[in-house]
Specification:
The chain is about 45% helix and about 15% strand. By secondary structure, the chain is of the alpha/beta class. The strands form two sheets. The protein has a seven-stranded parallel sheet with strand order 3-2-1-4-7-8-9, sandwiched between helices. Strands 5-6 form a two-stranded antiparallel sheet.
Length: about 260
């Protein structure tokens, strides 16, 4: 699909990190873009800096997502591109023993469900809305739209304490081919990007020495990924009409260790 001013796009989690880099790349290519994000302050700042539209959106609720899509379409028209970057996790062992007291504590089920709801269900919720809207469009160059989801290296090599996050991101990987098959007859493509360790705002709290050590774990190039590299791959997926139903690792060949 050619990216130009005729193309409308939505990026969830678009106010920072991988999402913001993707917003910038889409805008630089000429697309009209709506940023979906929970953080109003950073969302509006990102919109002002990029020329995108900001729409406050909580991907974990139907009402918020439905309202956000309606608002974005009123501003930019029906989207042909959706990039899902919204997500998050926690770090809680499945079961742990307190070293001081010997007390055994289990991973709270509500915290496990929260991470799945945000990542897997939130992504699927946005995918269904976008796909339904794309189905109302006439194909351009043989396709109606492109859906891009975001997984993580944790989907296949989750570290200790990442049970919920690993399950959530593995769910995104697992549903990619199925959704692509569901939407094939409607000329809508679906791919997932599986990033490794990236230098995003979430890493800003990490000491410089630790960031350097993390980068050194990457076989080549031995550094953290740049958000612009994620964005570049997202745009290539949009442009390359034969990419469909697949998950693409973007990680410098790293395979995460247990901790």
């Amino acid at each position: 699909m050619k990216i130009d001013p005729s193309v409308s796009a939505i990026v969830t989690g678009g106010a920072s990190g991988l999402g913001l880099a993707t917003v910038r790349a889409l805008r630089d290519a000429g697309a009209r873009v709506a940023i979906f994000d929970m953080n109003e302050e950073t969302g509006r700042q990102a919109a002002e800096a990029t020329g995108a539209a900001f729409v406050k959106c909580d991907v974990s609720t139907d009402d918020s997502v439905d309202a956000a899509f309606a608002t974005a379409r009123a501003v930019n028209g029906q989207e042909r591109v959706l990039v899902c970057c919204a997500g998050g996790g926690n770090a809680i062992p499945t079961v742990r023993r307190d070293k001081a007291t010997g007390e055994i504590r289990m991973f709270p089920s509500d915290q496990f469900e929260r991470v799945l709801k945000l990542n897997t269900v939130g992504t699927f919720r946005c995918v269904t809305r976008a796909a339904a809207g794309m189905m109302t469009l006439d194909p351009v160059d043989g396709e109606r739209g492109v859906l891009i989801n975001t997984a993580s290296a944790a989907a296949t090599e989750g570290q200790m304490g990442q049970a919920a996050y690993s399950a959530a991101k593995a769910g995104i990987v697992g549903m990619t081919l199925t959704i692509a098959r569901d939407l094939a007859r409607e000329a809508i493509r679906v791919c997932t990007i599986q990033p490794g360790i990236f230098d995003t705002p979430a890493m800003a709290r990490v000491p410089a020495e630790m960031k350097q050590a993390l980068g050194a774990m990457v076989p080549f190039p031995p550094r953290l990924g740049a958000a612009e590299e994620y964005a570049g791959l997202a745009l290539e997926i949009v442009r390359n009409g034969y990419l469909n139903g697949t998950t693409i690792r973007l990680d410098g060949a790293i395979r995460m260790q247990p901790r």
